[in-house]
Write a structure and sequence with these properties.
With 144 residues, the protein is mainly α. It is 54% helix and 7% strand.
Length: 144
């Protein structure tokens, strides 16, 4: 059996051996030990292959960086993106503190999610249309 020595103040009305203990005296509490057994049911082994697993987005970004004539502008654009993200987070936090606006924005979000589900996700032709739009947008962004 394991025991833990604690320095917890005793309850004010607790009586030990006929007298009231002084607050802050160490007391021993006994706790039953529990056996911790870990069962290894299966293992996973990952092996590397000779093929490259870089995505087309990663290759596109690398090509843009290598072919860029003005890398300082790209760094500035990245910094502006980080600052813009930080500002957007702070604006959303400030709006969230207003009394009525978060509930109104939540209602608008629920309505939009319902419309999107009805428009694009319920029926198979609509899902195919959404898939085509997403593929077209990705190819436009990557310039393919």
């Amino acid at each position: 059996m394991a025991s833990i020595l604690t320095r917890m103040p005793s309850p004010p009305l607790m009586v030990v051996n006929g007298r009231k203990p002084i607050s802050g005296t160490p007391q021993r509490f006994a706790f039953p030990t529990a056996r911790v057994e870990r069962l290894h049911r299966f293992g996973v082994i990952a092996k590397a292959t000779g093929e490259s697993s870089e995505s087309s987005i990663g290759k596109s970004i690398q090509d843009i960086w290598e072919n860029s004539e003005d890398r300082v502008a790209l760094i500035g654009l990245g910094f502006a993106g980080v600052v813009g993200f930080w500002a957007a987070v702070n604006i959303v936090t400030a709006i969230d503190k207003l009394p009525v606006v978060p509930s109104l924005l939540e209602l608008i979000g629920l309505l939009f999610a319902s419309w999107f589900t009805y428009r694009y996700l319920l029926f198979k032709p609509d899902r195919q249309e959404l898939s085509q739009k997403v593929s077209k947008s990705i190819s436009d962004i990557l310039g393919q």
